[in-house]
Amino acid sequence: MCGIFFSICNRNDQPIHFKNEIYQDISESLARRGPDDHQVIETECGNVGLYFAGWVLHMQGQQICSQPAQSKKGNILLWNGEVFDGLKVSPGQSDTTALLSSLDKCDDEEILQLLSCIEGPWSFVYYHLANSKVYFGRDYFGRRSLVWNWDENTLTLASVCSRNASWEEVAGCGIFCVNIKDGQSGFKKSIVLHPWKCITNPRPKVCEDFQTGRILNTAMHTKYKYKLDNYPLVDLPHISSHVEPLTILAKSCSDKNLWPVCREFIAKLKRSVMKRTSAHTSTGENCNIGVLFSGGVDCSVLALLADIYIPKDEAIDLLNVAFEQRRKLSKTKQSNALVKDNIYEVPDRITGRSSYQELKDLCPKRKWNFVEINVTLEELGEKRVERISMLSCPKSTVLDDSIACAIWFASRGEGLLNGEQKYRSNARVLLCGMGADEQLAGYSRHRGIYDRNNDWGAVGDEINMEVERISARNLGRDDRIISDHGKEARFPYFDEEVVQFLCSLPVHVKADLRLERGIGEKILLRGAAYDLGLHGAAVAPKRAIQFGSRIAKAENRKEKGGDSCERLKNNFASQIHIFKNAKL
């Protein structure tokens, strides 16, 4: 993984790149993403200057591959990604080295074809000297951050952005290309977008902003296609409300003949987790892998599957975050003490402990570190101003703020073991459960659509839309947040093979919204968890991280998630004043 900075400008119109204001604003954040190595290459093409800077977090290969990487032909690559499939990478070889070597052999058309075949999370900038073109983009799901900023004579690309300029996320809708010679009169006008084939209908708005080039095939085909005869929708028998949820889940999976599909899903997830837990170089620490862990079914399944592939002498860190809850005034010292002792006893802490115990019972030879990450209101305000507000940019809603804060503290990994021993996780790879809710109808809006329309097709259309637009929503933000700690996020539910498998299934196999909450949504994953022995996690209620960690309640604000968040704009002193008053 690396931090990327690239700037291209007419040399007569702009100062030296590495001294410009944008670079100075974000270089510290880029260095935090890649603490192991840093390199700069500056070159020119006619009257156009090109500036490449890279910061490396060493994850693959026996030796660090410095970035930007330059070939003997003069081609330059900035690569922030992992190659899981679509390109041969020899054992012990850096994927950056393998990719640059392959790109060196390609002409213009072959460059596009090679990049579109790579499976895994990535963002990149590639300068091809012979044709004077710069290619850049993000993978289909936008799992790695890439943002851009431009004016008439300058184009800047980076992994993170600043508050002091107008930035946008690069859309994960294809590969962009700038012909440097054509761009001397204005780089934006010369950008050509080569869109992914699977998202050209309906045509995204971003396609209208640029010239459209060749339509690219990808490994992804996300529109759901299935034969209903293979998965008939069966009537549900009447089940008494007194029956335990676990019994209802097991009976429903049996009645619907879901167990074979659950096991096929487990096989796909196993392969996904295997790729994401083996594609890294050991740091020599006792723990190399962590899990963002609420105790819910999504993350618990990932943790259990990770146990299969991680050496038994390594620990796995389960990172569980909770935010300080306001203390209610009490009349007695005894009740005051009780309230104080429970200010971090939030829903995710409770389910986290329960699922942690299940993992210990199922995998007794593994050392599981359940890390209780407790965040005070003062520290929340401080780190929001120091780090999180800039990393969230260009995202700026109340929901972005809540999720970004929760993920930043969780991924930092500073907390307590056994409720008392101070601990900081050194895991550089973090498994994240994002993607399960979008694909398996885990959100309340999915149930609302079904309840209003009694139409599985409408729910399927919503799922399809959410998967197609995911690159424009959350994952770039999450990458910026997690990478700030010199760690890498990996998303097993967004593995290309997993996504295509789920897209091949009808909605009622993935979720049965006729069943009650905590069972019907994500029933395929819940059935898989049951089959793996995670009986408690299988029926754990769905809670978004901002509610499970109680960050949404900690500040006691009546806001809507889509509102613009003023806290991301406020200065530190004003926030500390607000939080101190909030505790009174």
Summarize the structure.
The longest helix is centred in the middle third of the chain and has 20 residues, at 259-278. With 584 residues, the protein is α+β, with helices and mostly antiparallel strands.
Count structural domains: 2
- Structure classification: alpha+beta
Considering the protein shown, what is the CATH homologous superfamily of the largest domain? HUPs
Strand order of the largest sheet: 4-5-6-7-11-12-13
Organism: Ciona intestinalis (Transparent sea squirt)
Protein name: Asparagine synthetase domain-containing protein 1
GO molecular function: asparagine synthase (glutamine-hydrolyzing) activity
Domain Glutamine amidotransferase type-2: 2-221
Report on the structure:
- The radius of gyration is 24 Å and the shape is globular.
- The model is unreliable at 331-339 and 576-584 (pLDDT under 50).
- The strands form three sheets. The chain has a seven-stranded mixed β-sheet with strand order 4-5-6-7-11-12-13.
- Helices cover 38% and strands 18% of the residues.
- By secondary structure, the chain is α+β, with helices and mostly antiparallel strands.
- It has two domains: 2-212, Glutamine Phosphoribosylpyrophosphate, subunit 1, domain 1, CATH 3.60.20.10; 257-442 and 474-505 and 528-582, 3-Layer(aba) Sandwich (Rossmann fold).
